[in-house]
Amino acid sequence: MVLLQSDARSDAGDKIALVIGNSDYAFSPLVNPTNDAADMGAALEALGFEVTVLLNADQRAMKRAIDEFGRKLDRDRGTGLFYFAGHGVQVRGRNYLVPVNARIRTENDVEYESVDAGRVLAKMEDAGNELNIVILDACRNNPFARSFRSARNGLASIDAPSGSLIAYATAPGSVAADGSGRNGLYTANLLRAMQVPGLGLEQVFKRVRVAVREATDGLQTPWENTSLEGDFYFIPPERRVATQQPASRQAAPVVSTPVDRQPQSAKVTDTAQPPAPDGGKDGPTLVNVTSNGTLVRARIEVYKSGTEQRVLWHDTSSTDPARNPARLELATGDYDVNIAPLEINGSEPREISNLRVRPGATSTLDVEFPYGVLKFSGLVNGALGLTRLEVFHAGTRQQVLWLDTSDTDKNRNPLQIKLAPGDYDFQVTAMRVLGSEPRLLQNVSIIANETRSLTEDFELGTLSVLATANGKLTSSRVEIFEAGTRIQVSWGDTSDQDKKRNPLPFRLAPKHYDVQVSALNLAGSEPILIEGVRLDARAEETLTAAF
Predict the structure, then answer these.
(1) Which of 5, 296, 297, 299 has a Cα-to-Cα distance from 158 of 20 to 30 A?
(2) Alpha-helical runs (H) found in 352-507
(3) Residue pLDDT, tens place only, 223-245
(4) What secondary structure, in 3-state letters, does 60-105 show?
(5) Neighbouring C-alpha atoms within 13 Å toward the C-beta of 60
(6) For residue 408, is it left (φ>0), alpha (ψ between -120 and 50) or beta?
(7) Residues 440, 362: contact at Cβ < 8 Å?
(8) Do the Cβ atoms of 343 and 318 come closer than 8 Å?
(9) Run of H or E residues at 43
(10) Rounded to a whole number, what is the distance in angstroms from the first to the last CA of the chain?
(11) 238 CB-near residues (< 8 Å, 6+ apart)
(12) Which of 303, 309, 297 is nearest to 330 (CA)?
């Protein structure tokens, strides 16, 4: 755990922030959250917040930090801001923030192993301050979904108490992928929008929503619940904020002079640079970004040479020729250029050092990012099935991306993924095969300009459980455990009226199970335990529990 603190305040009143980013989970590590939290903390500090940052925090540290956050709000009655990046899950309509040390096997463990997001809201309400902001970049895939009785995607919607705004990286019930660059897509756009002078709080999040929707072709839509009664600006109108310089270039969360995106090109006026000698006109710099010979979307960041001072950023387009090649108009001088492709998973940014811009001359950069294509098919009993594919750099738990296939949409099964050349590990999980273990495919090589196909077929059997009392159907609860353990695989209730639920079918991975049946309408009856039930692949077995 890393703990950073600062005491920066603003003239507009006390502003207090608690920022938490968890990446190093033992069960499903994430790439971006610690970067997101560190960059968010630096940005908020530069904007006048008193900031506490926790990285890779356990449950105890998170709870203690939230309690201290509440005490500070109660003491100063200022603006409160809470930011969390990492795994978040919802259980029975409540949202939980998952610490790195959580040990969760079933959904009943979540309450005791995680931190209820309601704890943060309660501290804010108790403080009675006028404005609170909660930002949850915690809508990534639920790594425990297969062991939950009623797995829900994403986070649940929370009503915003008076004078507060609650922001989600994506709509309630939806998920957002962990990014492949330094920052997640949502936080990267939020950091930019926060730097625009005169942009009100709600306008900031509207700008983020538009940017994320465009970047994902509508697949991810950030969401807010709000009950704000006043105005708040990260940077008030007619004011500029002097930002602290980040420790490293890729960690830069803020820019010293905000530059809005332009429809045709990105422009910046660098007042620190002298005019071109003899009235000469500076020539443009053209950056042509391609992959396998085709234009691709890319993020271009330009820095003064040898410094961490970013002077502009620009997104190219794979379809708009006016935005690719990128036409960058720069004052005379030397620059470093950082280019990151937005469509090639696992690709590292490319840095070009000491690009020289001279009067009247046109500089051209041609940058090629090769890739290979992975075609992945997820099958269940030989037919399209819902599976989750997680991609890691080989020999590490550094996640490149995750995607779900579909058992109905042929555009998503097989998946076609662009990957930078290299070696990868793939973890495949069958989402609807109870008791199934993830499969790990190691050291799979992706070669530039080649297509590689992978197919994983998960077999299952069907176990039906029939409950009777005196020879007639009776309502019962069925619990299924891994044989010889109390690790629950699934459960369900039968019905004495609905024949679709009695016998109750379970689609299970082939292995041995213990089945416990409890009669729901027979007072004083003892559960019946049937041990060591063997289920073969593609088999259909029926058990009868007679009371």
Answers:
(1) 5
(2) none
(3) 888 888 778 999 887 544 443 33
(4) HHHHHHHHHHHHHHHHHCCEEEEEEECCEEEECCEEEECCCCCCCC
(5) 1
(6) alpha
(7) no
(8) yes
(9) helix 33-46
(10) 54
(11) 197, 198
(12) 303
Mapping DSSP onto H, E and C, the string for 244-308 reads CCCCCHHHCCCCCCCCCCCCCCEECCCCCCCCCHHHCCECCEEEEEEECCEECCEEEEEEECCCC
The answer for residues whose C-beta is within 8 angstroms of residue 311's C-beta and 6 or more apart is 255, 257, 259, 268, 270, 302, 303, 304, 330, 335
d(CA 15, CA 72): 10
Query: What tokens does 247 get?
Result: 């420790």
In this prediction, residue 530 carries a pLDDT of: 93
The confidence score (pLDDT) of residue 444 equals 93
Nearest of 488, 372, 385 to residue 428 by alpha carbon = 385
Enter the tokens of residue 61.
């540290």
User: The tokens of 116 are what?
Assistant: 């209820």
- Residue 319 CA to residue 161 CA, distance in Å, equals 43
**Does the pLDDT of residue 151 top 70, yes or no?**
no
HSE value, Cβ hemisphere, 13 Å, CA-based, for 499: 1
Which pair of structure tokens corresponds to residue 187? 């936080």
Cβ-contact 101, 136 below 8 angstroms: no
Taking a C-beta distance cutoff of 8 angstroms, is the pair 21, 86 a contact? yes
Collapsing DSSP states into helix, strand and coil, what is residue 342?
coil
Nearest to 148 by CA among 111, 97, 101, 115: 111
Region 84-98: mean pLDDT is 86
Query: In the predicted model, what is the mean pLDDT of residues 269-280?
Result: 33
d(CA 34, CA 267): 31
The secondary element (H helix, E strand) that includes residue 512 is strand 511-519
**Six-digit token pair at 260?**
């809005």
pLDDT above 90 covers a percentage of the chain that reads: 29
Summarised one tens digit per residue, pLDDT across range 367-402 is: 889 999 999 999 999 998 889 898 988 988 777 887
Residues 6 or more apart from 166 whose CB is under 8 A from it? 134, 136, 158, 160, 224, 225, 226
The residue among 42, 33, 57, 55 whose CA lies nearest residue 6 is: 42
